[in-house]
Amino acid sequence: MATRDCHPLNKSNAHFASPKGPSLSDRLENYSTWIEARISNGYWPYARNLATPPEPTAKIAYTGRTAHKGINLAVQDYLALSTHPEIKEAAISATRDFGVHSAGSAMLLGNNPLSLQLEAALSDLLHLDHILLFPTGWAAGYGTVTGLIRDYDHIVMDQLAHACLQGGAAAATKNVHRYRHLDVAHAAEILGRIRSTDTQNAILVIAEGVYSMDSDSPDLAALHASCREFRATLLVDVAHDLGCLGDGTGQIGMQGMLGKVDIVMGAFSKTFASNGGFVATSDPRIKRYLQWFANPHTFSNALSPVQCAVVIKAISVIRSQEGETRRRGLLHASTFFRARLRQHGLETLGSPSAIVPVMLGKDAFAREASKAVADSGTFVNLVEFPAVGLGAARFRCQLMATHTDEQLVQAAQDIYDAVLSAGSKLNRRSDQTDAQISVLDG
Ligand SMILES: Cc1ncc(COP(=O)(O)O)c(C=O)c1O
């Protein structure tokens, strides 16, 4: 059994974020011991592996355990396109025509006719003329921010923006200002303050279409208006909503902002069945500049022909009647599952999207609940610091268009049972959490 110092319920990643000591590896000893204690006591729901395609039921193996089959709410394939027969066929045909790998950076000879076709398809979807492709969504976010912003410029970003944007901001400038989550008035106040002393340098405002841990969305028109007022540029990351919300154009389309946002950045990995990312803009100068100055575009191998073919086909499905039907399926699944969880007295965050966050609270409680759910027939993701704030751990359930009501009823029951089981285990401890108490009372 672990010593109290490395007890698997007692610490968080925050305790290990600044290791000290001259040996880069020796100073990781405590962290390794803590993780080993988590694994051997069943509190390590990370780095699992998927032994089947990412379908609504799947076989998944926890570290050190054999794979078992269950209801899968833990993968990112929102419209269930990864296993779509025509999309798989597109991948096979691209392999035959072009081989399996890109031949270099997009700036050298990494592009192929499919890259250009993909740029055209994205441009048409987003009503923005200029597209730049990246090997991952992360690269698109980090590369765009670091490519455009210099140390004398400013970044005004939602405090919950994704790690690729936060990391890009931290690497680009010390002038990073975070506004309260979704609070456009706060963003405007910060913009006003910056412009009152600095009229010379640029400001990039960063938001997301749907926030990945909270499933909520900002008022994009209001944010855009503030950007115009203070001569700032708006970047919106649409990783979690493009393709799967509204008519397929995500929150930007739903909010009447198609073609109006200065820079749209996204990832193919949630809805478009492939790794990869992009930046879209109406300004050709931004694309031209980023081709050289967005390092992950310039100095990393381009998307492979297979990835391009998959995303092109995914876009065509997304824009068809079938895409509409799949989006309706996803929205139904999300609304239905949220209602079911609430009937159990569980707290869900945000509004319907592919993401359903189930609030747990403190890490100890969340880890107990996660351990209990691992023994059930349902797979979910536990999210704890640094992916969310300390004490704000949650299950992040990610739905697919093809989940059935029956599967979701069972999954909600399994989550509820796991939360109850965690509650009764921790009831004997003095550090009960608010979430636990409210569930037990409810
Ligand atoms: C909001 C957001 N942006 C960007 C990314 C990065 O995308 P990818 O995983 O495709 O690199 C993610 C993925 O987690 C995300 O949630």
Plain-language structure description:
There is one protein chain. With 442 residues, the protein is of the alpha/beta class. It folds into two domains: 50-76 and 322-441, Alpha-Beta Complex (Aspartate Aminotransferase, domain 1); 85-318, Aspartate Aminotransferase, domain 2. It contains 15 helices and 14 strands. It has helices at residues 29-40, 85-98, 113-126, 137-148, 163-172, 184-197, 220-229, 250-254, 284-293, 295-298, 305-318, 321-343, 363-374, 405-427, 434-441; strands spanning 49-50, 57-61, 68-72, 130-134, 154-158, 176-179, 203-208, 233-237, 263-267, 277-281, 355-361, 378-379, 381-383, 393-398. The strands form three sheets. Strands 4-10-9-8-7-5-6 form a seven-stranded mixed beta sheet, sandwiched between helices. It has a four-stranded mixed beta sheet with strand order 1-2-3-12. Strand 2 and strand 3 form a beta hairpin. Helix 2 runs antiparallel to helix 11 (305-318), helix 3 packs parallel to helix 11 and helix 4 (137-148) packs across helix 9. The longest helix is centred in the last third of the chain and has 23 residues, at 321-343.
